[in-house]
Known about the structure:
Blueprint: H1 12-42, H2 47-74, E1 83-85, H3 87-97, H4 99-104, E2 108-113, E3 120-122, H5 124-140, E4 152-160, E5 163-170, H6 177-188, H7 204-214, E6 221-225, E7 228-235
Parallel strand pairs: 2-4
Antiparallel strand pairs: 1-3, 4-5, 5-7, 6-7
Helix pairs in contact: 1-2, 1-7, 2-5, 2-7, 3-5, 5-7
Amino acid sequence: MAALTTNYPVSSEYQALLQGVAEELKLPLLSVARRAELALITKDTTEKSLRDICMTANGALELIDGYLLGLQLAERQHALELEPVSVTSILYDVAHTLTSTSERYNLTLELDIRGTIAPVMSNRSALMAALLSLGTAFIEAQEASVHSRRPVVTFAAYRTRSGLAAGIYSNYSTISSAQLRRAYMLHSFRARQPLTQLSATSAAGLFVARQILRAMSADLKVARHHKQAGLATILQPSRQLQFV
């Protein structure tokens, strides 16, 4: 008797995203395996060696967590509750989490929050996951070795006419809105490098972040902040607290 199987439909968009995540995981997993191998051979159990292995493994796990969260939201397996959330607090936590990653890529990570930033309607865990995924992908795309100066990457939040912008910017980012639209299209066609203007990888973290944000009726767009360019999302202020 043939075994009974149940097929759950997965959108082509998520098939493309899964391929990107799989491509992106190859390097960190290979790095963890090789570093652990080397540590066994050389008896290298120094704090720096172990920290590097942990950081690489944690980055891979965060990418997987972000992908799974986005998939659950897309399939409505996870109820997304919106509430007033402090973007300032989330950006601070994301920047703190990515400090070690920025040092590894030899760049300067800054936080720029000016003026009074009101709470927004969002989900703290989902927004944190989206910005962490985006930040990791953006930082890894900054190749310090090809620049004459040390890259500066900035997390920023500021008010705009359409809402509150929260994003990440660099003094070396050159991506345009047209290039981002093309990258979204290429990603849906499962291109291995849909965003060559920004990253030589699959840029899976960026697309994972976008999927999570879209579940909260937001999206990722090209934006400028002072003399830097990057990617940001527009969030809506909490109406519950506007008159408090």
